[in-house]
Design goal:
The chain is an alpha/beta fold. Helices cover 29% and strands 18% of the residues. The protein has nine helices and 17 strands. It has helices at 170-176, 180-195, 206-219, 225-228, 239-246, 256-262, 273-290, 292-295, 299-320, and strands at 6-7, 12-13, 20-21, 27-31, 36-39, 52-53, 60-61, 66-67, 74-75, 80-84, 90-94, 118-124, 134-141, 146-152, 178-179, 201-202, 236-237. The protein starts with 5 loop residues before the first strand and ends in a 26-residue tail after the last helix.
C-alpha cells in the first residue's frame, strides 16, 4: 500500500460511490482541501505527489447552510463544499466557486523580509550532524551575490548516504575541493560579517545546518560560530519554523521542495546547496509577505518567536508520537564531535 494511504479504522461512506465502507475494509486519504476521506479500495484515486488527493470526490460537503466565500450568497446544506482555511477553520463555497488550495496572497507591508538577507545551505554525507561531514556549502544574498564552496572532508573511510540528492561524492570533493579548514574559515568569516550587522541569516532546518557547521568547525580545530558572536547565534530565520507556525493545519509534507511548490517558488535542483539556499531565501520573503504578523516582527522578536514556535511544535509532536528522533532545540542542537560511523542500511 502507498505510504500516504491508510486503512480506515471506523466505518464510513465512500467519497466516490457513497456506499458504506466497513471498518478496516477501506482506505483513508488526506484531502487537499483539508481532512480525511474514506474510499472503497477500488474507488480510491492515486495520491498527488505531496501525499494528498485533489480529486473532486475528496471535497467535503457542508452540513449546514453557509455564505459562499466567493459570491456571498447562501449555500444550502449539502450543496456546497468546505475548504480548510489552514488555521483550523473551514470556509464554505458553491461547488463551482471552490478554489484550489493555495497560500494567502502576498502583501506589500514593510518588514524584515525587505532588508538584506543572507541564506546558507550545505551538502553533507548524511543527516547525523555530529558525525557526518560537510562536502559543499553555498551562501546567497537578497542583493544577488553568491558564494559556493566544494570542501575536501579529509581522510578516512567516508561515504554519502543514498538518501542525499546533492550529487557530490566524497571522491569528487577530495579531488576538487578546498581543504576543509580553509573553506570553513572562509564561510564562517562571511557569516560573521552578516550576523554582526544584526541582519537575519536564512537557514532551512536550522538545527541540522548550524549544528553540522559548528561540529565541523570544532572537528578541524577552528573557533565555533557561537564563540565568535558576542550576542549569540542570531538573528536566524528558519522558513520551516515559519511555515509550520503560519499554516499548522495544512496537509502534505514539509520538505523544502514541497513547501516551495506550495508557495509557487521555483526550485530547479533540490539538494544542490546553491539552489536550496536561493529557494530558502525567497521562501522566507514570501512567507513573511503572505503572513503580515510574521513579516512585521522586529528582527530580535523574529528570532525569539521561532524558538518559542519550535518548542510548541516539538511538544505537540511528542504528544502525538513520543520517543521519535526529532530536533528538540532551535536554532542549535548540542554540539558533539563524534567519530565516523557507516550509514545504516536504507
Amino acid at each position: 500500500m502507498n505510504s500516504h494511504v491508510r486503512t480506515n479504522q471506523f466505518a464510513g461512506h465512500c467519497a466516490r460511490c457513497s456506499a458504506e465502507v466497513v471498518a478496516e475494509a477501506g482506505v483513508l486519504l488526506r484531502s487537499a482541501w483539508g481532512g480525511w476521506v474514506v474510499y472503497h479500495p477500488a474507488h480510491a484515486p492515486a495520491p498527488d505527489p505531496d501525499g494528498t488527493t485533489s480529486d473532486p470526490s475528496a471535497m467535503r460537503p457542508n452540513r449546514r447552510d453557509g455564505e459562499c466565500e466567493v459570491c456571498g450568497s447562501i449555500v444550502p446544506a449539502g450543496l456546497g463544499v468546505l475548504v480548510d482555511t489552514a488555521f483550523g477553520g473551514w470556509d464554505v463555497y458553491h461547488r463551482e466557486h471552490a478554489r484550489e488550495p493555495a497560500p494567502p496572497r502576498r502583501r506589500r507591508h514593510p518588514g524584515w523580509h525587505r532588508r538584506r538577507l543572507m541564506a546558507l545551505d550545505i551538502a553533507t554525507t548524511g543527516n547525523r550532524y555530529n558525525v557526518d561531514r560537510i562536502l559543499g556549502a553555498a551562501l546567497r544574498t537578497s542583493d544577488g551575490t553568491e558564494q559556493t564552496w566544494l570542501i575536501d572532508p579529509g581522510p578516512g573511510p567516508l561515504s554519502v548516504t543514498p538518501r542525499k540528492k546533492h550529487g557530490i561524492s566524497v571522491e569528487h570533493a577530495r579531488a576538487r575541493g578546498e581543504p576543509a579548514a580553509q573553506a570553513l574559515e572562509e564561510l564562517t568569516t562571511t557569516l560573521i560579517g552578516h550576523l554582526v550587522a544584526k541582519e537575519p541569516l536564512v537557514v532551512w532546518h536550522a538545527p541540522f545546518v548550524l549544528t553540522s557547521l559548528e561540529t565541523e568547525l570544532l572537528r578541524h580545530g577552528l573557533t565555533s560560530l557561537t564563540d565568535r558572536l558576542a550576542n549569540g547565534l542570531s538573528p536566524i530565520c528558519d522558513p520551516l519554523v515559519l511555515d509550520r507556525h503560519a499554516e499548522p493545519f495544512r496537509s502534505g509534507r514539509r520538505s523544502l521542495e514541497a513547501v516551495t511548490e506550495w508557495y509557487g517558488i521555483p526550485h530547479e535542483r533540490p539538494g544542490d546547496p546553491s539552489c536550496d539556499a536561493e529557494a530558502a531565501l525567497v521562501l522566507a520573503q514570501v512567507v513573511a509577505a503572505c503572513h503580515p504578523a510574521i513579516g512585521r516582527l522586529s528582527r530580535p522578536a523574529l528570532h525569539r518567536e521561532q524558538a518559542h514556535w519550535n518548542e510548541q511544535f516539538v511538544q505537540e509532536a511528542e504528544a502525538r508520537r513520543p520517543d521519535r528522533n526529532r530536533d528538540r532545540h532551535w536554532p542549535l542542537e548540542t554540539v558533539q564531535v563524534l567519530a565516523w560511523k557507516e550509514h545504516d542500511p536504507a
